[in-house]
Amino acid sequence: ALRREAWLALNGSYPASDNLLYDVNELAAYQADKWVDWYDLINRNGLQQSHSVSIQSGGDKTKVFFSTGYYKEEGMLRGNDFARYNARLNFDQRISNAFKAGLYTQLTWVNSNGRKDPLSQVNGMTPLGDVYDSVGNINLFPLSGVKSKVSPLADERPSAYKNNTLRGTIN
Predict the structure, then answer these.
(1) CA-based radius of gyration for the chain
(2) How far is CA 110 from CA 52, 70, 75, 78, in A?
(3) In this prediction, what percent of the chain has a pLDDT beyond 70?
(4) What is the pTM of this model?
(5) b/e per residue, 34-49, with b = 16+ CB within 10 A?
(6) Backbone dihedral region of 102: left (phi > 0), alpha (psi from -120 to 50 degrees) or beta?
(7) What are phi and psi for residue 43, nearest 5 degrees?
(8) What are 70's strand-pairing partners?
(9) Which of 81, 95, 145, 169 has its CA 20 to 30 A from that of 74?
(10) Do residues 168 and 108 lie in contact, with contact meaning Cβ atoms separated by under 8 Å?
(11) Is 109 exposed, middle or buried (0-12, 13-18, 19+ CB in 10 A)?
(12) Residues 10-37 pLDDT 10s
């Protein structure tokens, strides 16, 4: 509909044929009614949760503190996820009125999965094509015969981007 209106604005009348609006690959997808809502395919409802627990104990000379936590975020774009697990242990010992010794440790594990700007890809895609192949895999080039437009879902393929990091601190 928008292409017809753009043609009307430029030429003063509607096109005589759809062949004037679409290239041969787009026309084939249009005639086969292969419409794609790319924006809907890359979005989801985001979710965020955070949990932590800590305990501490001790007396006049010895103090112990332990905490652990979990944070998870699922972004509004499918494939944008972040998870963090952390643990901390502090140990203080008063040796005398003048001296005190301690051990402070922290361990953090992060799992981060991110996408390479799928919104910009969606804005440049034609809303026509085959999102998935016959066995359900993501088509890298959804419009048959067009190799210049990569699917905005391409980075959703298994292990397309993963970043797992383990960090620790001891003082």
Answers:
(1) 28
(2) 16, 10, 15, 18
(3) 96
(4) 0.69
(5) bebebeebbbeeeeee
(6) beta
(7) -100, 160
(8) 51, 85
(9) 169
(10) yes
(11) middle
(12) 999 888 888 888 888 888 998 899 999 9
Length of the chain: 171
Output the pLDDT for position 148: 86
How confident is the model at residue 161, as a pLDDT? Answer: 64
CB 4 within 8 A of CB 12: no
Strand partners, 31: none
The identity of residue 51, as a single letter, is H
Low-confidence ranges of the chain (pLDDT < 70): 1, 159-163, 171
Query: Which position has the token pair 């440790």?
Result: 105
